TrEMBL record:
PANTHER family recorded: GLYCERATE KINASE
Domain MOFRL: 310-419
Pfam families named among the record's database cross-references: DUF4147 (PF13660), MOFRL (PF05161)
Gene Ontology cellular-component annotations: cytoplasm
Identification of the protein by name: DUF4147 domain-containing protein
Provenance organism: Bradyrhizobium sediminis
Length: 426
């Protein structure tokens, strides 16, 4: 049987390349202002975006270096060399002290912006965790604990960010409020289903449609155990996020420069060029990883039974409700569920991976991006006596795929447009 792994990896790489800052940023950058360009970046692509902005202003436009300043706060292991914009490596998915300082310094720099300055805000997935500025009365440790509880709850990212935004001094439009004298231009790489600007990095420069009441309802919905300080903060009207019409947005513009759909389209083109009939399921899928895998396995088995050569592709961001104590993010859990459902069927191979290069994990740059499965996986499962259901029960996909040798290890990709899932049926 033909090895489809090189093709699966090429499809993933095409999706990532379509959203890389070096490809997508420059054409969206504005001319130099009368004053300074103050660049504030956050997320997994922050350093790469900052470096691309430096090339535009310093090399292409010849801006005097002293007129360019800024801070790029990114995930540990995601730094790239920069000249004028300071790079801070910080915790993700659980924030750390470096992110706390990066956010404080970014707020101060925004507040220093004058009417002739351009406040250039560059956002990518991970910005919510990288920029951590707890609301008054909430300690850093309390915010960290809440963050962990939210990540384990199975809540979609939009709901996670609704809570985060109401316990922050930088999210939910508050960065724009700090820099309101300047012209504010936000350029964002979308990592959220439906590309909602208020959800990308928790919307630090745009109006927020969610409310304190929404945040309180989500704490109740997921039964989160939170400290009294957090309950008090969520009851304080002073912690309401910025709404449409706020003076903070008088000179603010927001633009998407890369979207999950464009990356999924790039993946689809490659699969079609390889001779596959396409079943495209969209770039905005959400849901429990194992349930979505069951739906996709049914499609694959139907195609196999009908002797159709198809590629089933999807994007979006799945979730895992953590009940065990294993390791592995939603892409690995999806692939593990697929392995259990497809193990008796030849001619099917699949990849599920996060476009940022890290699927779940402990916040290390060496975390797996996801996993691949095919007939070799099924043979290894059999020879080692591995039971996918047992590993699923413990949410331990990383251990399973470590044993079969099927983890996808890419390292940081320096962008993030959610997940890419591909099933090839031959």
């Amino acid at each position: 049987m033909t090895d489809r792994r090189p093709l699966l990896r090429a499809i993933y790489d095409a999706a990532v390349a379509a959203a890389h800052p070096d490809v997508v940023l420059a054409r969206h950058l504005r001319p130099a202002p009368k004053g300074r360009v103050i660049c504030l970046a956050a997320g997994k692509g922050a350093a790469a975006m900052a470096a691309a902005a430096e090339r535009h202003y310093l090399d292409e436009l010849g801006l005097e270096p002293s007129r360019l300043t800024g801070i790029a706060t990114t995930r540990h292991g995601h730094a790239v060399p920069t000249r004028r914009i300071r790079v801070v490596e910080a915790g993700h998915p659980v924030p750390d002290e470096a992110g706390l300082k990066g956010a404080e310094d970014s707020l101060r720099l925004a507040a220093s912006a004058g009417v002739d300055d351009l406040l250039l805000v560059l956002l990518s997935g991970g910005g919510s965790a990288n920029w951590i500025a707890p609301a008054e009365g909430v300690s850093f440790m309390q915010k960290q604990q809440l963050n962990r509880a939210l990540l384990r709850s199975g809540a979609p990212i939009g709901e996670v960010n609704t809570v985060r935004k109401h316990l922050s001094r930088i999210k939910g439009g508050r960065l724009a409020r700090a820099g309101k004298l300047a012209e504010i231009v936000t350029l964002a790489i979308s990592d959220v289903p439906h590309d909602d600007p208020s959800a990308i990095a928790s919307g630090p420069t745009v109006p927020d449609p969610t409310t304190l009441a929404d945040a309180r309802a989500l704490v109740a919905k997921y039964g989160l155990q939170v400290d009294d300080a957090i309950r008090i903060a969520l009851d304080d009207p002073g912690n309401e996020s910025c709404k449409p019409g706020d003076a903070a947005f008088a000179r603010a513009r927001f633009e998407l420069i890369a979207q999950p759909k464009a990356s999924l389209d790039a993946a689809i083109r490659l699969a079609r060029d390889a001779g596959y009939e396409i079943i495209g399921l969209g770039a905005d899928l959400e849901g429990e990883a194992r349930d979505v895998a069951a739906d996709h396995a049914r499609l694959a088995l139907l195609a196999r039974a009908a002797n159709r050569r198809v590629a089933i592709l999807s994007g979006g961001e799945l979730t895992v409700t953590v009940r065990g104590n294993g390791r592995g993010g939603p892409n690995q859990e999806y692939a593990l569920a697929l392995a259990g459902l497809l193990k008796d069927t030849p001619g099917i191979s699949a990849l599920a991976a996060d476009t940022d290069g890290a699927d779940g994990g402990a916040g290390s740059a060496a975390d797996p991006a996801g996993a691949m499965i095919d007939s070799a996986t099924f043979a290894k499962m059999k020879s080692l006596g591995l039971d996918p259901k047992a590993y699923l029960g413990n949410n331990d996909a990383t251990a399973f795929f470590s044993a079969t040798g099927d983890l996808l290890l890419t390292g940081p990709t320096l962008t993030n447009v959610n997940d890419i899932r591909v099933i090839l049926v031959d």
